[in-house]
Amino acid sequence: GESVGLHLPTLSVQEGDNSIINCAYSNSASDYFIWYKQESGKGPQFIIDIRSNMDKRQGQRVTVLLNKTVKHLSLQIAATQPGDSAVYFCAEIPLIYNQGGKLIFGQGTELSVKP
Amino acid sequence: NAGVTQTPKFRILKIGQSMTLQCTQDMNHNYMYWYRQDPGMGLKLIYYSVGAGITDKGEVPNGYNVSRSTTEDFPLRLELAAPSQTSVYFCASRVYPPDRLSYYGYTFGSGTRLTVV
Question: A35-68 pLDDT, tens per residue?
């Protein structure tokens, strides 16, 4: 079936370094992609989103890159802080689900920031 | 504004028991969703609703039922609990069409951790 998956289940970085979290998706008809952050015991929290007609979008300390040719999505976090430690999920909304807005989630990458 | 509120936060059920997971939102969102999250995995859609009186199945609906009698409430019912339903359950809501062109505006609850023994 269609799925969104992540290359690395865990990522450990030094405080202050940049982090890159990757995601591969299989549905070429997806229209919209979102990155979520999930801290232990909490629900997913929106970080940044990007539409399929864009290849880059920047937020505060975060950048999302979309490469539709290879169906790849990445989240870059600049100057990673201990508070960034969490599990990060990418999610997509396929075009056919646009009205329902149902998200398809990937497995998740656990980011650990060393002080 | 409380956002999306889920109760209970934790529950242990015996095989074959039934229970209802409660979800309520005070943002007047028309769309509501139930997801489950197994350890180390992403969320999978169980059921969703695009408005009061309208519900539809997601990826993994078997063993669950929902109702949406009001805009605010979207309870999830487990009729005959099975160990495979041990998971963390998240309710979410959003407004459609979105307020901005690019943000679909999902708000998630804090989850219900369910264990079936």
Answer: 999 998 888 998 999 988 899 999 999 999 999 9
Encoded amino acid at B70, one letter:
T
Determine the Cα–Cα distance for residues B18 and B29; give it in Å rounded to an integer: 28
Nearest chain A alpha carbon to B59:
A104
Q: Which residue of B has its CA nearest to A106?
A: B42
For residue range B7-59, list pLDDT tens digits in order. Answer: 999 999 999 999 999 999 998 889 999 999 987 778 899 999 999 999 999 98
CB contact under 8 A, A89 and B42: yes
Q: What is the DSSP string of B56-103?
A: EE-S--TTEEE--SSSSB--EEESS--GGG-EEEEEEEE-SS-SSSS-
Q: Does B61 touch chain A (CB under 8 A)?
A: no
> Which residues does chain A have within 8 Å of residue B109's beta carbon, measured at their own beta carbons?
43
- Beta pairing, strands B31-37 & B43-51: antiparallel
